[in-house]
Amino acid sequence: MTGKGKFLRKTETKSKHSVLSEGRFALGVVVGLVLCLASYLSIHFLEIEVTKNEFLNAAPAFLALAVALVSLLISYNALFEQRRIRQAGTDPVILVHLGKRSDAPMMITFEVSNVGAGAALNVTLSFDKNDDDFDESRVTTNLRNLTHPIRVIKQNQSVQYNFGVGHRLLGDEPIRPFHISVKYQDIEENWYSSTQIIDVRELHHQMAHSPPMAVIAKSLERLSKDLTRATEGGQLRVLAKSTAQHEKEMEEMLSRIHEKKEGDA
Fold first, then answer.
1. Closest by CA position to 178, among listed 163, 162, 167, 166
2. How far apart are CA 39 and CA 101, in angstroms?
3. Which residues have C-beta within 8 Å of that of residue 186, sequence separation ≥ 6?
4. Cβ neighbours, 10 Å, residue 4
């Protein structure tokens, strides 16, 4: 396998498979023999005058030869597709994209995600933008500073960086789209590369409301601060007592009130 379409390219392969195990050598030999045999028979029939009976006798041989060749090509294609499926189940696939922080949706993140079935090693990124394009007043993390390779990104995991607040990235003039070159290895030391694009204009009209759990967490934090200030200023006292003790005190209080009413009468 030399690649997966135009998006992802396997640029260097360290395969342990021999020529015979790939099936290409066997396919080439068989196709060559079939073509040689077909050419010999064709020339032989052209040199002699073929009767109708001879042609009918030779027709099954040509038909069987054609069927064998077609079957061979179909089998090889099935083998090739099976190999692609097997590799798709083990190869890493790195995507770079924009995301949001779960606790602060206004903060846009730059994410490097492995959506493949295997671990990605030594992931390196390179950008086509100048430093001026990553204005510090709009961008939290200058992506051009991400020069050190990411050692490992496991399957279905991401590495996130704070990119910037949504409305600052967009503004009146959104940050221009930029390309990112990604290069990485799999566990068999095969190299992959792809060129991807980041465009902040996709953030237009996306929701950025706080999730319920974040709202609950902030509310509990405010309540905790209010309780702390109240207890420290002596405005609030907390008494702990059992239910039985509370009921006993209530009965005694009601008894005293009843006795006081009888005395007044």
1. 163
2. 68
3. 90, 91, 92, 118, 119, 120, 121, 192
4. 17
